[in-house]
């Protein structure tokens, strides 16, 4: 881990209220920046930029202090923390949003602290693409920029999103987003289309069907999802995947094609843990041996 | 191939009319028994039991004579051959049935020829489970019975289907069918549930998301689907998968767990070819070298 490079993450900070068949939770720690940091900090140092309101219960993120997460970029603004409410079902593909109260997140204007500007790895969480561009303007020569987005920005702010994608090295989307961004009908065509717009690497997440890595040199890698009996709370699975993925990249040689594949597996493993309990309950105490155990199972489940 | 054991297949024989964004086809060769035989006969001798009408154009199956398919069980009955019409879209997950004319298939009563009764491998194609049971009553000590079914029988004839499943060694279903048969919400729970009802092996097909092998000893194997730019005609993909899968099993040692995994890959490969053209156009001239080439690509796309 001594060779791990720092990762800058800019994203949301939220308190989530969840109703599920397995129980409820109120004002649980949420938001892409916290989900990402909890996962990535298992593998590399993390620098977090996000905004919370004056009502934010700081004790909820005390565990991140022990996990190599630099909180200097966590701004506290006058007002309420971003709150999201959702209902989950036994069918893990179903989810209803109950409410969205943006609070201080509505006026979020990410300011990158001086000593974060040289971060070699950058994760642009799922925020307004204009803000993602603003972040890119504040950083110096990063080695790798990874961008996440969602349907909301694909439909609402396509031009800004296109500009952000063009400055990105790795694009992470789910399969629906890949089709929507490209109007293609095969994942192969969609990924090739996206790689012509800037990113040399595209990662397509398919939820319970796993993830696919596409690289500009033609390399394709399929990873299944870890088979789980119960998905208790799927919130943050994508950001956790990104955390495991980039955390692994930040501590290994990017010139080795196998590193990219193993990064996908690490992302999938950490995401498989996070959905087994509410919020970050399962990942905040996760240890590397537990990750390695599931990485080994991924080997067992795919070799032939 | 000298050690390949014969496979008995009982299923439908049809003429399909297809409307697709890539062209149309009328009275193209179709039906589970022909799709299966075309695929399986690449790897093992096949014995076919099905029914066609007096209008059936025999020249359409001339290619099967050169492929080690014994047609003694192909009955010709007074009346019309089963005809099915379907429309496909650019989205390979969408399909509309335009018409279904059962013809002589409605009164299909499979009679297993004397010299087919000792077949070591048996594939019960997707027909009425009462007929599947009738087939099982006519065969002697098979090594392996594989059953395919569909939602129509799960809903319409659950008792007969349950009886047929209980006498089966391998059940092949798609993911929706697995959930519907078990009322479970995870594939793992669904497969374990199904393995308690008779079959020691369950294969779950997930279309473009691949296939999963579950075995009673706890072994789980995930195979992706071969990435294709265009799916021209998805008819018969499941029967072709079953043909490649069982064909491989029939020519290898069932005691080797890796044989089961490689059988899944062979099924996936042959299915990846069949959907690239209408009917059996692509698989009827397929050679083993082409299969091996894609098997190698499956290795490349999954190792890490």
Distance between the termini of chain A: 32 Å
Structural class of chain A: alpha/beta
What's the name of the CATH homologous superfamily of chain A? Ribokinase
Spans of chain A with pLDDT under 50 lasting ≥5 residues?
Answer: none
Q: Please give the domain count of chain A.
A: 1
Number of helices of chain A: 10
- Indicate the CATH architecture of chain A: 3-Layer(aba) Sandwich
Approximate strand percentage of chain A: 25-35%
Nearest-angstrom radius of gyration of chain A? Answer: 18 Å
Strand arrangement within the widest β-sheet of chain A reads 5-4-1-8-9-10-11-12-13
What is the CATH top level name of chain A?
Alpha Beta
Largest interface: A-B, 34 and 34 residues
Order of helices and strands of chain A: EEEHEHEEEEHEHHEHHEEEHHH
Folded structure, characterized:
2 copies of one chain form a homodimer. Chain A is an alpha/beta fold. Chain A has a single domain (7-302), classed as Ribokinase (UDP-N-acetylmuramoyl-L-alanine:D-glutamate ligase). In chain A, 33% of the residues lie in helices and 26% in strands. Chain A has 10 helices and 13 strands. The first copy, chain A, has helices at residues 32-40, 62-65, 129-137, 151-156, 158-166, 175-182, 187-195, 237-250, 257-274, 288-302, and strands at 7-10, 14-20, 23-30, 46-53, 69-77, 82-88, 95-101, 121-124, 144-148, 170-174, 201-205, 211-215, 220-223. In chain A, the strands form 2 sheets. In chain A, strands 5-4-1-8-9-10-11-12-13 form a 9-stranded mixed β-sheet, sandwiched between helices. In chain A, strands 3-2-6-7 form a 4-stranded mixed β-sheet. In chain A, helix 3 packs parallel to helix 5, helix 6 (175-182) packs across helix 7 (187-195) and helix 9 crosses helix 10. The longest helix of chain A is centred in the C-terminal third of the chain and has 18 residues, at 257-274. The first copy, chain A, is globular. The mean pLDDT of chain A is 96. Chain A binds chain B through residues 90-92, 185-189, 206, 208-210, 212, 220-224, 227-231, 258, 261-262, 264-265, 298-299, 301-304, and chain B through 90-92, 185-189, 206, 208-210, 212, 220-224, 227-231, 258, 261-262, 264-265, 298-299, 301-304.
């Amino acid at each position: 881990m001594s060779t791990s490079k720092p990762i800058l993450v800019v994203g949301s900070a939220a308190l989530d209220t969840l109703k599920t068949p397995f129980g409820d939770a109120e004002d649980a720690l949420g938001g892409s920046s916290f989900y990402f940091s909890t996962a990535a900090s298992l593998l590399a140092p993390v620098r977090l930029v996000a905004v919370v309101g004056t009502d934010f219960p700081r004790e909820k993120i005390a565990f991140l202090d022990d996990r190599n997460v630099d909180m200097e970029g966590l701004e506290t603004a006058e007002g309420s923390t971003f709150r999201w409410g959702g209902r989950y079902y036994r069918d893990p593909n179903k989810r209803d949003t109950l409410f969205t109260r943006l609070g201080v997140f509505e006026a979020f204007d990410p300011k990158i602290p001086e000593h974060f500007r040289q971060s070699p790895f950058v994760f642009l969480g799922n925020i307004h693409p204009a803000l993602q561009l603003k972040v890119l303007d504040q950083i110096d020569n990063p080695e790798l920029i990874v961008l996440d987005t969602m349907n909301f920005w694909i439909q609402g702010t396509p031009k800004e999103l296109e500009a952000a994608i063009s400055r990105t090295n790795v694009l992470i989307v789910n399969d629906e987003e890949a089709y929507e961004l490209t109007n293609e009908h095969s994942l192969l065509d969609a990924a090739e289309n996206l790689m012509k717009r800037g990113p040399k690497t595209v990662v397509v997440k398919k939820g319970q069907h796993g993830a696919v890595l596409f690289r500009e040199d033609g390399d394709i890698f399929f990873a299944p999802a870890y088979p789980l009996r119960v998905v208790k709370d799927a919130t943050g699975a994508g950001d956790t995947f990104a955390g495991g993925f980039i955390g692994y990249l930040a501590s290994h040689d990017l010139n080795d094609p196998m590193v990219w594949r193993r990064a996908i597996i690490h992302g999938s493993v950490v995401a498989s843990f996070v959905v087994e309990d509410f919020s970050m309950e399962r990942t905040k105490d996760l240890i590397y041996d537990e990750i390695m155990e599931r990485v080994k199972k991924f080997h067992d489940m795919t070799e032939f």
